[in-house]
Amino acid sequence: MLLALKLAYRNLMGAKLRTWLNVFVLSLSFVVIIWQKGFINGWDQQARRDTIEWEIGGGQYWQENYDPYDPFTLDDSHARLSDATERTVAEGKLTPILISQATMYPEGRIQNILLKGIDPGQQIIELPSSNLVTENDEIPAMIGTRNAKNSKLAIGDYVTVRWRDANGTFDAAEVRITHIFKTNVPTLDVGVLWIPLEKHQEMMNLEGEATILVTAKETGFDASIAGWDFKDHYFLLTEIREMIEMKSIGGYVLFVILMSLAMLAIFDTQVLSIFRRQKEIGTHIALGMTQRQVIALFTVEGAMHSVLAAILAAVYGFPLLAYQASVGWTMPGGVDDYGLTIADTIYPAYSVGLVLGTTLIVLITTTIVSFLPTRRISKMKPTDAIRGKIH
Question: What is the pLDDT of residues 264-292, one digit of tens each?
């Protein structure tokens, strides 16, 4: 085996430019595949972290009728909190949110919104609800930057909101925008107006009621509450998980394309090498090497491309990817309007498993592709090979 390694290395170095072109293309595949996978991993981690910190905490209890994908159920998706649940809320382990439909009239335009009431003193999620505190009779409200941009509202503006309470009576009032927050979670922003919970309950005639209960991620509160269904992280992060899986499939397509280009170059190199070195093959066999040993020599020679490519990729890829991981990848403007949980800058996340797994896959694939053309060596007659007779 050591002899095969020495001969393979000598032959590769003898091929000079052809070898280094193949090695460079293969190393490029290494770096691009690892970067692409690291980018997806970074996006996944940031999206999960932002969603947990800003929206779902340690999990949510949904009132049994609540279905966020069916607006017709929203009017019935509320229930009064029991005394035990009220005590848990007072202990800071839960925070209730009341959700209802409403209409907003920014600058006379009609805009359907979700009116969400939250306790200004809650500390469970990152939503800056403390900005909903007011000392006068006006109704404070806050919106996200996307909503503010679409509605052309600014801090201090007044806007008319119209709603229908639990008895079916329509009412309207002016609210004052006291804060505009920026978040990477669009479900808290797009088409949502946040107001104090007690004021919302008063407007809807739903004193003491709520639609969802957000649990604190630190306490891990997950006791059973009658009439409420607990939704854990696996359920609440389904959209992010499916989105990442879809993006990963696109990444696999890129992986197949890059690997196909690199493997095609390796395969062609192996075929050409066997064609041009038939006399050398015959000489090896005449000197006592078995055909299996000659096949192993050419296979090792082809597989060594991936080893050299891994070394070259480490030389220029490691500092490049490390720099990318430190400064991140700035997303183009307007991406957050797609409704995806995505940060302005995504920081790729690389792991040892990712690098080793990619290296192992490329090494195995290169070895298989290098072996395939060498099978014709077993069909060669040594005398014909020495004469350079082409089959």
Answer: 877 877 777 777 777 777 777 777 778 78
> Which two tokens mark 307?
């080893």
Give start and end residues of each alpha helix (H) in 91-159.
145-151
What residues does 113 pair with on adjacent strands? 102
CA dist., res. 324 & res. 34, Å (int)? 12
Average of per-residue pLDDT across 337-358: 81
For residues 297-322, give the mean pLDDT. 87
Residue pLDDT, tens place only, 219-244: 666 678 889 999 989 999 998 888 88
Q: Give the type of residue at 83.
A: D
| pLDDT at site 333 | 67
Q: Would you state the torsion angle of the CA atoms of residues 151, 53, 241, 230, taken in this order, to the nearest 10 degrees?
A: -100
Residue-level pLDDT at 1? 66
Angle at 374 between CA 368 and CA 380, to 5 degrees: 160
Cα 127 from Cα 109, distance rounded (Å)? 27
Q: Which tokens in the block code for residue 333?
A: 């403007």
Shortest CA distance to 373 belongs to which of 321, 297, 306?
A: 297
* CA dihedral over 26, 27, 29, 34, signed as positive or negative: positive
Instruction: With CA atoms as reference, report the closest residue to 18 among 190, 245, 271.
Output: 271
pLDDT value at residue 382: 66
**Three-state secondary-structure class, residue 113:** strand
251: left (phi over 0), alpha (psi -120 to 50) or beta: alpha
Question: What's the mean per-residue pLDDT of the chain?
Answer: 85
| DSSP three-state, residue 101 | strand
Nearest to 104 by CA among 145, 147, 155, 66: 147
Task: Check residue 178 and give its pLDDT.
Answer: 94
